[in-house]
Every structure is written in structure tokens, then in C-alpha cells.
Design a protein that fits this description.
Blueprint (H helix, E strand, L loop, with lengths): L3 E5 L3 H12 L3 E5 L14 E2 L4 E2 H14 L3 E4 L2 E9 L2 E8 L14 H5 L3 E3 L8 E3 L1 E2 L11 E2 L11 H10 L6 H5 L12 E7 L1 E4 L3 E3 L16 E3 H8 L20 E8 L14 H15 L4 E6 L9 H10 L4 E4 L2 E6 L6 E7 L4 E7 L1 E6 L1 E3 L8 E3 L13 E3 L22 E3 L9 H21 L4
Parallel strand pairs: 1-2, 1-13, 2-5, 13-26, 15-22, 16-17, 16-22, 17-18, 24-25
Antiparallel strand pairs: 3-4, 6-7, 7-12, 8-9, 10-11, 14-23, 19-20, 20-21
The protein binds flavin-adenine dinucleotide (FAD) and iron/sulfur cluster (SF4) (2 copies).
Length: 459
């Protein structure tokens, strides 16, 4: 317990907190629920406001985590239980089976190439496919294969395949095991539970995208050429499903007119009443990148007001308008209709600056979908501010705001402290924010949790 800290969530906030804690010679357990650390930033092409390549900034930090002797990385793992108090928390972590011997796997990709089972690829937001055995993206850390048991023909065979194999007395698939050079595949793996004893905890569980179908008039999931901003990000990315070519889903052609719609599911009482903070800047950047990828493309951004609040952000916004010719139209789009023949999209909107109602045609629509906090862990009991306290093994429950972001009990003077002494929060888990604000809060959370860890006395 003495000098040990737990960080939950391996996005940029969790990575930064873990590195800062490790640098102070504290032992850090970094728990990430997916097979690789990196979070949402790993899916981004470039970042505002500098247009730096996201993976060029993120990958060295991910590698630094994997090489740091003070950090124990527990990927594909979840926090299942938590009790105790500041200076002496007891945490149970479940490591899900990868069905691959972690130490033996070299990340050579042989199994991935030969596996016959294909599944929509979550890293590419379903725009491409991955295999049942997979390494989530080229820069994944750790670079180890994982079998997605639900889609593996051996572990969860489709009914027809299972019957056929039974009748003919043959073994199901197992191709990965046959081709793996170091024999790393292990179908017998089971969940493993580890108990940790830490003095403080940093929660950095980040964000999920809201479901754009909550705003049905935009036809997401119904109109072929309506995308979310994260899908569009994968189209822009050279590691994406189209190797960085912006192509329409319906006919594989380059769009000539793209509409970006802001505040979809944000600042909307039907979904979330809060502002998602970074999506104005994300769309401004995406419209600029679209202009670079597709010379001559017409980009229009539909907004209520542009929130370009950070250092250099407003200048970035004005540059897209003045140098790149992005059009900014102030007004809510009322509805989108799809043209059956071309799959083009008719937008009906009010241009509040002109005071007119307009109907205009576009080839592609990108929705700046709002965000919500990820679920922290069923093991960490939560109380929504103002509601009744739940019984729990923790002395107090972790309070979240009405919007379910973790409540900061002292937002001015200690903007990382939660309602539980010894538990701190960083990044989007505490409220919508961009990368640089997430990193700032992560370093602050690392500092505050290190103070608790250094104060804790060995039992
Ligand atoms: C389309 C789009 C474009 C963007 N563009 C930019 C940009 O250009 N510039 C910029 O500064 N920002 C941008 N952002 C915002 C940026 O992605 C976030 O600010 C940043 O990712 C927040 O980092 P985080 O670590 O708090 O959360 P996340 O990146 O969400 O990471 C959280 C991590 O925690 C893990 N996790 C979640 N729950 C659990 C759990 N219960 N147990 C264990 N692990 C868990 C997740 O799997 C994930 O790895 C953009 C976001 C989007 C969606
Ligand atoms: S057993 Fe077959 S389907 Fe399953 S991961 Fe291996 S190769 Fe893929
Ligand atoms: S073939 Fe074996 S060593 Fe290579 S990535 Fe797959 S599991 Fe790992």
C-alpha cells in the first residue's frame, strides 16, 4: 500500500497521471478495460490547434508507459471491488482472458492474417472490419493479440458450424493456434483476479459518444452518407479504413459539398443539456483537413455559437474562414432528407444571420456528436448529487453531478478532489475537455494522489 497508486483508464489523462506518479518513484497500477491503452486520442488523425499528428504525440507516451519499471499495466481488465480508505484502499481487478499467452505473443500478426472470422472494427468506428483475433491498431500498447471470444468460431461457434463439426467429428477452426510461431494461443485461459492494495486512486475513465439517433431528424443510421465526427476522423486518418481518402459510403466517390453540424446531442434537452466543449474546435479542424484532402471541396459548418476558448483557438477558427474558405452558417438544421437516387442529402435550415429559411444539397454530412462520461466501474458506488447515499464498502460514495461526470468537491482550489478522500479525477471523467486540459488535470491529480501515497505509512 505504501507508495502505491491505482489509475483507472488508460487514455491520455490516465497515461499522463501514471507517468507523473512513476517519475516520483511511486508504484502505479494502470487499469484499462480495452486491450490497449490510448483512449480516444489514438483514433484521432490530427489535433487542434497545432495540427500535430495525434499518434506522433501519443505513441511515445504509450511506449514510455510500457517501458517504465514503476508502472504495472493491466489491460483488458476491470475494477471489480473497492473498499478501505485513503492511505489503504483494497482493490480487486479482473483480468479478462485474451486466450493468448501474453508473454509468448510477439505481436507478429500471423494469426490475424489467417483468422477467417470477420467483425466490424470498433477502432475504425465500424467503417472497416477486423478479425476475431486482433491487435486493435498498429501502435497498440501492449502489442499483443486478443481473441474476441464472442466472435471466435472456436470459442463461440455459430450454431450451424457447431452442429456440422459435431456430426463430422471435426474440431472447430483453431487456425490461429496452427499458424502462431511461438504457440501462444491458449483456448483454456480463464479470467484472473488480482488484489491490489493502494493508498490513492486516480479516475481517468474518459468519454463515450452519445447515440446520434437521439436526434432522429438527422437520419443517422438511416441516411448512408451521414457520419459522426469520429467516423469522419477515421476517414481522414492514413491508418483508417480508406487509408486517409475521404470517400462516400454509398458510392465510394469523393464528396464535393460537406456539411458539419454542431451540437448534435449537446445543448439539447432531448439528450444532454451541457456543451461537449471540444467539438466546435474538432469540426473546425476537420473542415480544414477536408479542404486539404479534397481540393475544391465546399465545407459549411452549421453552428449555434462557436466556442473557440483556448489559447490560439480563435485564431485557428478565423484562419479556416479567411484562408481556407470554410463557410460558417449560424442556425440549427431542422431536418435532413436523403435523395433516393444519388444518396445526396437535403438540409433544411434557418440562416439566422440572413433571416431566411434555406434548403440546400450536400454530398456528405458530419455530425459533431456530443459526449457522455464512460461508466467508471460498477464496483465504485456512485451517488448522483443531492440523492440518497447508497450503502457501500467505501466510507463514502463517489458523487457524480446530474450529468454523471464526477463531482469536483472544490472546483476552484482543488479541481481534482472527489467526494472520497484519496480518490482523484482527471480528464473527461470530470467533465468535457480537450487533450491539453485533460493532461493538465492529470498532472494535478498525480500530484495530489502522490501526496496521499507518500503520507501513507507502511502497516
Ligand atoms: C471526433 C473527436 C475529435 C477530437 N479532436 C480533438 C483535437 O483535435 N484536440 C484535442 O485536444 N482534443 C480532441 N478531442 C478530445 C479528446 O479526444 C479528449 O479530450 C481526450 O481523449 C480525453 O482523454 P481522457 O483520457 O480523459 O479520456 P479517453 O480518451 O476517453 O480515455 C479513457 C480511457 O479509459 C478507458 N476506460 C473507460 N472506462 C473504464 C473503466 N471502467 N475501467 C478501465 N478503463 C476504462 C477507456 O477505454 C479509455 O482508454 C476529440 C474528440 C473526438 C471524439
Ligand atoms: S479459432 Fe479461428 S476464428 Fe477463433 S480467433 Fe482463431 S482463427 Fe480466428
Ligand atoms: S501469431 Fe501468435 S505471436 Fe503472432 S500475434 Fe498471433 S498470437 Fe501473437
Amino acid at each position: 500500500v505504501f507508495n502505491q497508486v491505482l489509475v483507472v483508464g488508460g487514455g491520455i489523462a490516465g497515461i499522463q497521471a501514471a507517468l507523473d506518479l512513476a517519475e516520483q518513484d511511486l508504484k502505479v497500477f494502470l487499469v484499462e478495460k480495452t486491450p490497449s491503452i490510448g483512449g480516444k486520442m489514438s483514433q484521432l488523425d490530427k489535433t487542434f490547434p497545432t495540427l500535430d499528428c495525434a499518434s506522433c504525440i501519443l505513441t511515445p507516451k504509450m511506449v514510455a508507459v510500457s517501458r517504465n519499471k514503476n508502472i504495472e499495466l493491466l489491460t483488458y481488465s476491470e475494477v471489480r471491488g473497492i473498499s478501505g480508505k485513503a492511505g489503504d484502499f483494497h482493490v480487486t481487478v479482473a483480468k479478462k482472458p485474451r486466450y493468448v499467452n501474453f508473454d509468448a505473443c510477439t505481436g507478429c500478426n500471423e494469426c490475424v492474417m489467417k483468422c477467417p472470422a470477420k467483425v466490424p472494427d470498433e477502432f475504425n468506428m465500424g467503417l472497416g472490419e477486423r478479425k476475431a483475433i486482433y491487435i486493435p491498431f498498429p501502435q497498440a500498447v501492449p502489442r499483443k493479440a486478443t481473441i474476441d471470444a464472442e466472435h471466435c468460431w472456436r470459442l463461440t461457434p455459430p450454431e450451424k458450424m457447431r452442429k456440422n463439426a459435431l456430426e463430422r467429428g471435426i474440431t472447430l477452426c483453431g487456425v490461429c493456434a496452427r499458424v502462431c510461431p511461438p504457440n501462444a494461443i491458449d483456448f483454456s485461459q480463464k479470467e484472473e483476479v488480482v488484489d491490489l492494495n493502494v493508498s490513492s486512486i486516480v479516475i481517468a475513465t474518459g468519454l463515450e459518444l452519445e447515440d446520434p439517433r437521439r436526434v432522429p431528424e438527422y437520419g443517422y443510421g438511416k441516411h448512408t452518407n451521414v457520419y459522426t465526427h469520429l467516423e469522419f476522423e477515421r476517414l481522414l486518418s492514413s491508418t483508417g479504413p480508406t487509408s486517409g481518402e475521404v470517400l462516400r459510403r454509398s458510392d465510394g466517390r469523393h464528396p464535393k459539398r460537406i456539411a458539419f453540424i454542431q451540437c448534435v446531442c449537446s445543448r439539447d434537452l432531448r439528450a444532454n443539456f451541457y456543451c461537449s466543449a471540444f467539438c466546435c474546435m474538432a469540426s473546425i479542424r476537420q473542415s480544414m483537413l477536408a479542404k486539404e484532402h479534397l481540393p475544391g471541396v465546399d465545407c459549411s459548418v452549421f453552428y449555434m455559437d462557436i466556442r473557440a476558448f483556448g489559447k490560439g483557438y480563435y485564431q485557428f477558427f478565423k484562419r479556416t474562414e479567411e484562408e481556407y474558405g470554410v463557410k460558417y452558417i449560424r442556425g440549427r438544421v431542422a431536418r435532413i432528407e436523403e435523395k433516393p437516387d444519388t444518396k445526396n442529402l437535403m438540409l433544411v435550415y434557418e440562416d439566422t444571420r440572413l433571416g431566411s429559411f434555406v434548403k440546400a444539397e450536400f454530398d456528405m454530412v458530419v455530425l459533431a456528436v456530443g459526449i457522455k462520461p464512460s461508466e467508471i466501474s460498477p464496483a465504485i458506488p456512485i451517488t448522483v448529487s443531492g440523492s440518497k447515499r447508497l450503502e457501500s464498502s467505501l466510507p463514502v460514495t463517489l458523487e457524480v453531478e446530474e450529468d454523471r461526470f464526477v463531482k469536483l468537491v472544490n472546483p476552484y482550489l482543488n479541481p481534482v478532489a472527489t467526494s472520497v478522500n484519496g480518490i482523484f479525477v482527471a480528464g473527461v471523467a470530470a467533465g468535457a475537455k480537450d487533450v491539453s486540459d485533460s493532461v493538465m488535470q492529470a498532472s494535478a491529480a498525480a500530484m495530489k494522489s502522490s501526496i496521499v501515497a507518500k503520507d501513507a505509512k507502511a502497516p
